[in-house]
Amino acid sequence: MIQIAIVDDQTEAISGILSVFQQWEKENHVYFEIDTYTDADLFCDAIFDKKYQALFLDLDMPKKSGFDISQFLRELGNNTPIVYITNRDDLMQKAFQYKVLGFVRKDKIQEELPFAISCVVQEIQKKNSHVMIFAAHRQKKEYYNLPVSDILYIESENHQTKIYTVSTTDAIITRDSLRSYMEKEEFQGFIPISVSCIVNIEHIFSIEKDTLILANKKVLFISRRKVKSVKEMFQQKTRRNII
Q1: Contact predicate 131/92, CB 8 Å
Q2: ∠ at Cα 177 (175, 183), nearest 5°?
Q3: Exposure pattern of 85-96 as b/e (b: 16+ CB <10 Å)?
């Protein structure tokens, strides 16, 4: 079962969301374990003991807004995917500074939420994808079974390929070519920012001129020839998140 949390101060809204989930389960035969919270503070306390795979947050709540919760999670280093549910279209732009999968309008729950649920399931399935890395060191050889979603970027340098992840400070060095990773189906979500570097688009925070900023604040430079295509792919990804 997929572990989900819904945070909304209105019990009627939660009931409507749950009914859509129930119908989606019947049609797709994928099932969820769902916790609901009408108090944002209770959710923030519970998150220390729970491991949710996705969150559905109301943006407009009296104690803490969905943005407040998102900022709280970011400070904890919690990157659980989020779907925002609200009637506030004007808050959409601000939403994308967080790891948001989508934006569902409350007055269109029946039409928009099923697609949001599908996006959540696809994201979780991608997270569960792993790749075996053979790391070659002078003194020893190691194998890493890495979640593809944990890889930030891969670069080629001096006949070596370096893999940087969210959980390691030093690069994993392998003799596999950069192209060999680009050709793997699991790496379709990576975009080339130069002839020697590909980046996991899910970890891109922003793009400014010819620089790319990752969610961990790492700055990478985009080659002149790639600036336009990188920006277009990032914009396409952002637009897909607008449900």
Answers
A1: no
A2: 140
A3: bbebeebbeebe
Integer Cα distance of 126 and 122 in angstroms: 6
Helices 109-127 and 11-28 pack at an angle, to 10 degrees, of 60
243 residues of the chain, pLDDT tens digit each = 889 999 999 999 999 999 999 999 999 888 999 999 999 999 999 999 888 999 999 988 888 888 889 889 888 878 788 999 988 766 666 655 555 778 898 889 999 999 999 988 888 877 767 788 888 665 666 778 888 888 999 999 988 899 999 887 889 999 889 999 998 888 888 999 999 999 999 899 889 889 999 988 899 999 999 999 999 888 777 655 544
Query: What is 16-31 written as a DSSP string?
Result: HHHHHHHHHHHHH---
